[in-house]
Design brief:
By secondary structure, the chain is of the alpha/beta class. The protein has one domain (4-124): Rossmann fold, CATH 3.40.50. 38% of the residues lie in helices and 19% in strands. It is built from four helices and five strands, in the order E-H-E-H-E-H-E-E-H. A five-stranded parallel beta sheet has the order 2-1-3-4-5, with helices on both faces. Helix 1 links the parallel strand 1 (4-8) and strand 2 (28-32). The mean pLDDT is 92.
């Protein structure tokens, strides 16, 4: 079974392109384009990693992260926030329980490296 990555991002075109790059790294990818229902989607899919947009139209990625962190099983899934904000504007994101931040626009090689490193680090915990 391949490692499954769930992308939660309302920008469908960006999510599609991002999923293509992640698949090229050998991962299975599922995209979900709404904040509402995202927690249920995580429960259903049980991904190995979540790439979570910070700003969604109906609920923030931060709120989704907080809900996931309160669930005994779901908090075991590493989260990378996905944001257009710049470094310096996002200091508190990792303190919310995420393992890192990926900034848009991203370099595909760097994204894959970050995903691999996050999964490796999380497995060692």
């Amino acid at each position: 079974m391949n490692t499954k990555v769930l992308i939660i991002d309302d920008e469908e075109d960006l999510a599609r392109i991002t999923s293509k790059w992640i698949r090229s790294g050998g991962y299975d990818v599922v995209c979900y384009h709404e904040g509402k229902g995202a927690v249920e989607k995580v429960k259903e899919l049980k991904p190995h990693l979540i790439l979570l947009d910070v700003i969604l139209p109906d609920i923030s990625g931060i709120e989704i992260c907080k809900v996931l962190q309160q669930d005994k099983q779901l908090k075991e899934i590493p989260i990378l926030f996905f944001t257009s904000s710049r470094p310096g504007e996002t200091e508190n994101l990792e303190s919310l329980g995420a393992q890192g931040v990926v900034y848009k626009p991203y370099e595909p090689h760097d994204l894959l490296k970050t995903i691999k490193q996050t999964l490796t680090n999380f497995a060692e915990m």
